[in-house]
Amino acid sequence: MTMQSVPQIFSRKRRAARRARHLALRAADPQAQFLRAHMAAEIVDRLDFMQLTPALALVLDDAPDPLADLLAQRGSAIADMPLPDEELPYPRGGFDLIASLAQLDTVNDLPGALIHARAALAPGGLFIACLCGAGSLPSLRQILMVADGERPAARIHPQIDNLAASGLMGRAGFSRQVVDSHSLTVSYRSLERMLADLRAQGLTNVLADSPPPLTREAMARARAAFAEMADSEGRVTETFEILTLTGWR
């Protein structure tokens, strides 16, 4: 599949800008990265269950330190290379493990990205990817629909589900592929805190067709919708559906 034939759902330029902002915000407040910390722990737990210590691991993440540190503590060598363009062949290969955190949900050519990841593995190597899948951010989706009124804009990314991800893993040539998901819930006292969390963790909109900014009136409707959804303690619960893709070469 050529780059020209792939629908450009996501903007590479906006994705790069989001990455730079995420790195800056992460440096200012490392504790705000709860989602990636959860994904890193999920991957390490699976490796421990499989009693697997990969000799050479590549971590695909805007800020790979948490998972890389956990893997290094277990005896893995961590590849020192820039975050590759997932839609192109990797500049090097031979990895015993490729672990991807919160990256593949904004790739235009997801089938190609999986094929390139498999090709970069050593024979018998393992690929694990965690990403936000279908079912994520239902509360925010509802709030934004209320905010936009009669002319809703595309503000939340299209999301992949277990069945589609499993099919793509098979098409990419992985063996013994498994796709599963679980929910992570977080409660917020304000809409501003919810949006700040998404921004700090590099989870904001990078659609190629950028939606118009919310007007002052639309933000007022969004805050009212948030308040309407709040529980007796004034909190709104948001859900992140964590999709985990596992496959072997």
From TrEMBL:
InterPro entries xref list: Malonyl-ACP_OMT (IPR050602), SAM-dependent_MTases_sf (IPR029063)
SUPFAM superfamilies: S-adenosyl-L-methionine-dependent methyltransferases (SSF53335)
Keyword Lyase: no
Zinc-finger recorded as keyword: no
Keywords, comma-separated and alphabetical: Methyltransferase, Transferase
Name the UniProt record assigns to this protein: Methyltransferase domain-containing protein
Organism per entry: Alteraurantiacibacter lauratis
